[in-house]
Design goal:
Largest sheet: 4 strands, antiparallel
Radius of gyration: 15 Å
Number of strands: 6
Shape: globular
CATH topology: Alpha-Beta Plaits
Number of domains: 1
Order of helices and strands: EHEEEEHE
CATH architecture: 2-Layer Sandwich
CATH class: Alpha Beta
Helix content: 10-25%
Distance between the termini: 22 Å
Number of helices: 2
Amino acid sequence: MDETWALTKMTRVEVVVGGEEIPVLTELLSEVGAIGFTVVSNVSGLGHSGYHQGRLLFNDRNALSLITVVLPADRAGALLDGLRSLLAHRSGVLLVSDTWVSRPEYFQ
């Protein structure tokens, strides 16, 4: 990473779950102090349980959703603990990576 970019390292967490899990996830995000996140509904993909197609016309709870959140590493641990507990009994995909942001105050 070029030091002249003046970027701050943070943790990016992405979770793909069924739409019915979104309220539980957003509550967990609030509890760990995440001040913002992005939800993309009706995502499609192929996984262990087969192909999931987005764009269900009248029922977004049966479609998959992707939640992306960026937060400081010191808060990521609590979020990951909660997500692992949640996903132990539900289907879903959890991805975690380091990321760099230009305005860290947006994620504090």
